[in-house]
């Protein structure tokens, strides 16, 4: 086992080397452009038929969840977190070449709504 350090937009891995990529509470820290670059890079390192699974802040499931999410936005910045409120990850996944995009499962939390999204790389 080894540890490789790198940036999400420039992963130090070969093309088509992974079956699955999992991301948890990461994308809301990125600008829209960085999100898109990271998804393109993820697509590159996934094998055909590989899947990405994302758990991150998503569109608030109620007005209470929206109000609670302001705490996250104040702490993490509105520029990067507003994309979560606008639910743009499915669109960015599609723009990056992913297919079979499934999402919508929402989990209310003390700070907002976590949304689970998965998509696959075409075979």
From TrEMBL:
Domain called Methyltransferase type: residue spans: 3-53
Protein keywords: Methyltransferase, S-adenosyl-L-methionine, Transferase
Top-level taxon of origin: Bacteria
Family matches, as SUPFAM superfamilies: S-adenosyl-L-methionine-dependent methyltransferases
Gene3D superfamilies: Vaccinia Virus protein VP39
Keyword S-adenosyl-L-methionine part of the UniProt annotation: yes
CDD domains associated with the record: AdoMet_MTases
Keyword Transferase: yes
GO molecular function list: methyltransferase activity
One Pfam entry name: Methyltransf_11
Biological processes annotated in GO: methylation
UniProt-recorded name of the protein: Methyltransferase domain-containing protein
């Amino acid at each position: 086992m080894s540890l490789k350090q790198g940036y999400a937009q420039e992963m130090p891995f070969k093309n088509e080397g992974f079956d699955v990529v999992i991301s948890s509470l990461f994308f809301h820290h990125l600008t829209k452009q960085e999100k898109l670059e990271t998804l393109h890079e993820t697509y590159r390192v996934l094998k055909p038929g590989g899947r990405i699974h994302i758990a991150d802040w998503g569109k608030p499931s109620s007005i209470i969840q929206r109000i609670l999410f302001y705490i996250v936005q104040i702490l993490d910045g509105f520029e990067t977190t507003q994309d979560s409120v606008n639910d743009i990850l499915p669109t960015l996944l599609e723009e990056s070449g992913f297919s079979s995009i499934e999402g919508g499962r929402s989990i209310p939390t003390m700070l907002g709504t976590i949304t689970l999204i998965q998509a696959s790389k075409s075979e």
